[in-house]
Design a protein that fits this description.
This protein has about 280 residues and is mainly β. It folds into two domains: about 1-185, no CATH class; about 210-280, no CATH class. It has two helices and twelve strands. The strands form two sheets. Strands 1, 2, 3, 4, 5, 6, 7, 8 and 9 form a nine-stranded mixed β-sheet that branches. The radius of gyration is 25 Å and the shape is extended.
């Protein structure tokens, strides 16, 4: 990842100096590269959870494979931010909880086929569904990264998802005064979740903190047992069921919540309650 940052800084510096994208040497002008470097920071005023400054590097590449076929690749890498604990790595499209203080993401990677009256795009893409001053309520095709929902731009927070996008441009209808028509169809083969902050991060909602146990009142427990077994029982007190939320990565690293609640890289949660205790 260090090599990516070195190459990316060179591309950003060259593109900034020229004021446009760069032609990659040795490609006869068929491959262009561009990018930018952004810095984000939150100044503490009245205490509260900390958030480290973050550096964001974005690189984009466009390749003309033929007269009608083009390829697009966009990479993003960031260091710092609201993350606590965790490990460097690459973002995936499966887990909602990913603790990556240093991460790499292929935000877009797709092929574009341009026909006479249609465009076909296949791969990881971002789309803008609807136009409005602000955040369109219909722009829900791409999930978003909510690790920093206020500082980060809403468009940059979009997560690229695999999709097939087809746009058809029908002929104008001059008799009706209609022109510039187009129809777009988007197919998403898999559902990609949004990325959510973890329990120790600045923007985690306290009301969503997981519980360590579930208490069932005695009367309700007796009724459930009666419905399940067909005979009445008398319990000495309420039923207490311990609940543990764990993830796929349980390597003993720093946890992001109470003991036996969440581990530092909360990828996929599962609940378990192996013993039952009584309280009176």
């Amino acid at each position: 990842m260090r090599g990516l940052w070195c190459a990316g800084l060179a591309v950003v510096y060259g593109a900034t100096a020229l004021g446009s994208t760069l032609e990659v040497p040795g490609t006869a002008g068929r491959v262009e590269a561009g990018g930018y470097l952004d810095g984000l920071a939150v100044a503490p005023t009245e205490g509260g959870p900390r958030e480290r400054p973050q550096a964001l590097l974005a690189l984009s590449f466009a390749a003309a494979l033929s007269d009608r076929l083009r390829g697009h690749l966009a990479l993003q890498s960031a260091i710092g931010g609201p993350f606590e604990g965790g490990h460097p790595g690459v973002y995936d499209l499966v887990h909602a909880f990913q603790n990556r203080p240093i991460h790499l993401e292929a935000s877009e990677a797709y092929a574009e086929l341009r026909l006479d009256q249609a465009d076909v795009l296949a791969g990881v893409q971002k789309v803008a569904w609807g136009k409005l001053d602000g955040l369109p309520p219909t722009d829900v095709v791409n999930p978003r990264d909510y690790h920093d929902p206020l500082v980060r731009d809403v468009e940059e927070a979009k997560i690229g998802v695999p999709m097939l996008q087809t746009t058809w441009y029908p002929s104008d209808l001059p008799r009706l005064g209609v022109s510039g028509l187009r129809a777009t169809l988007v197919y998403l083969p898999i559902a990609v979740p949004s990325r959510l902050p973890l329990i120790e991060e600045r923007w985690f909602p306290p009301s969503a903190a997981p519980v360590s146990r579930v208490v069932l009142p005695r009367t309700r427990s007796e009724r459930l047992i009666d419905d399940a077994l067909g005979f009445a029982v008398t319990l000495p007190g309420d039923v207490v069921v311990p609940v543990a939320f764990r993830t796929l990565n349980q390597n003993g690293s720093r946890s992001t919540g109470p003991p036996d609640a969440w581990t530092s890289r909360c990828a996929r949660t599962r609940s378990s309650g192996r013993r039952t205790t009584w309280s009176t």
